[in-house]
Amino acid sequence: MLHPVIIQFRAIEYGTADYEAEYRLRNAVLRHPLGMDLSDEYLGAERDQLHFGLFSASGDLLATVIAVPGEENTARIRQMAVTMEWAGRGLGSHLMREVEKQLIQQGMRRIELHARRSAERFYLKLGYRPEGTEFQEIGLPHILMVKEL
Fold first, then answer.
1. Nearest in space to 102 (alpha carbons), one of 120, 77, 130, 123
2. 16 phi and psi, to 5 degrees?
3. How many domains in the chain?
4. Strand pairing partners for 69?
5. Fewer CB within 10 Å of terminal CB in the chain, N or C?
6. Could you tell me how far CA 95 lies from the centroid of its own chain?
7. For residue range 71-120, what is the model confidence (pLDDT) as tens digits?
8. Which domain holds residue 40?
């Protein structure tokens, strides 16, 4: 388990320095390895989305994810990223559990996400189940995964 003094979960406000750190982390982990850049995508809609992060005691962003509340008490999770230095240490699982708690408090009862096939096992361990057939997104195979809260 992560030590609460070392790792802090908190919301990230759009347009702040924390959001800039989130943008850089998502770009480095999710887009640059594919030869892509987030600046090529429309990010204006992110203003109305929920941004969360795990921070070190010194304030460094270690992991991030975005949640998009939708209709019928369903939220969509997008663009989860963990720094390469902290990958494999349980931060992703910790972040998802904290986000699920936040979403439950907001009345969400279901979460959907487009999981890269390479991350499917991670989400299975967290109780998500695949739905439908594989599809391509940003040039990679993905699968819709869902969890009832």
1. 77
2. -90, 175
3. 1
4. 75
5. N
6. 8
7. 999 999 999 999 999 888 899 999 999 999 999 999 999 999 999 999 99
8. 8-110
Contact 96, 111 (CB under 8 A): no
In eight-state DSSP terms, residue 49 is S
Is residue 51 classed as helix, strand or coil in its secondary structure? Answer: strand
Phi/psi-derived region of residue 9, left when phi > 0, alpha when psi is between -120 and 50, beta in every other case: beta
In a domain, 122, yes or no: no
Instruction: State the Cα–Cα distance between residues 39 and 86, nearest whole angstrom.
Output: 25
CATH number assigned to the domain comprising residue 72: 3.40.630.30
Kindly state the tokens that stand for 83: 């720094």
CB 79 within 8 Å of CB 26: yes
Tokens (6 digits) for 89? 């240490």
In angstroms, rounded to a whole number, what is the distance separating the alpha carbons of residues 51 and 35?
Answer: 24
